[in-house]
Known about the structure:
- By secondary structure, the chain is mainly alpha-helical.
- Helix content is 57%, strand content 3%.
- The chain has two domains: 3-100, DNA polymerase, domain 1; 117-299, hpI Integrase, Chain A, CATH 1.10.443.
- It contains 14 helices and two strands.
- The chain is globular, with a radius of gyration of 24 Å.
- The model is unreliable at 131-135 (pLDDT under 50).
Amino acid sequence: xxxSDAIDAFLCSCRFSKNLSNLTISAxxxxxxxxRRFAGQRGAQTAAAVSGELIQGFVAHLKGEQRCLDSSIRxxxxxxxxxxxxxxxxGHLAINPFSKIRMTFRHDRRxxxxxxxxxxxxxxxxxxxxxxxxxxxxxxxxxRRNYALLELLFYSGARIGEILRLDSRDxxxxxxxxxxxxxxxKERIVHIGCKPVVDAIKSYLAARRxxxxxxxxxxxxxxxxxxxxxxxxSIVRTCAKAACIAVRxxxxxxxxxxxxxxxxxxxxxxxxxxxLGHASISTTxxxxxxxxAQKRQVMRAFHPRVQFGRCRFA
Length: 314
């Protein structure tokens, strides 16, 4: 079986058996296509040609020529392991080459980038600035949508993919809860009954009904189709620029910021884990490091002992 065909079969299995999202499938394809190109350059065109030597060569290539971070290599190897296991199960490989390979990687977790309270407030204010202006219907719809998107993104702490997968029916009738579909399509219910958030969503829905496209998606573009991840990222960047925020802002920074601020305000880690939809609490624990880093900065900047300066010995 050609390696390209084997990759297609594996991704098809991931989509329908594991119920993975389109974004995850796309990321898997990118990693496996990189491996396929590497294998092709070394004359390995078929699934049966996948060997331990080839895999180790690929990892060395990522570390050396590609200069990938250990975290990126670890992710690519994890995808490759799943793919090779799929080949073994389906009889394309007699022995799983990973059974004789030992790999270790540094767990160099980078602290997530977060926004300040002032930056979040500025973006939300900027997003709604024209909500009541007498603009065209299209402009009015776009402004109301953008404001509702940012309010829901920050309050729920959801991933942008989870927000964009929402249908109108995922909101309960009283606008108190939203049902999110996370990784692996696992559902969780998150509270959204905060007045500014509810008001923003209701205002947007009033404008959305005027489009009357029949599309089930909650967030639509101006043509009445489901909003894409690319468009959502563009909305966030535009609002950040209008709010005079110099750093590059991404939708995921809203998630990091919300979790960090909740922890600083006294929320327990287990509750934050449930709200964010993390499978393991170890993933949520990174926000304790963010909080500690911020505390260290505050101590260094404002503690009076630092301001005394260095004591000199006689």
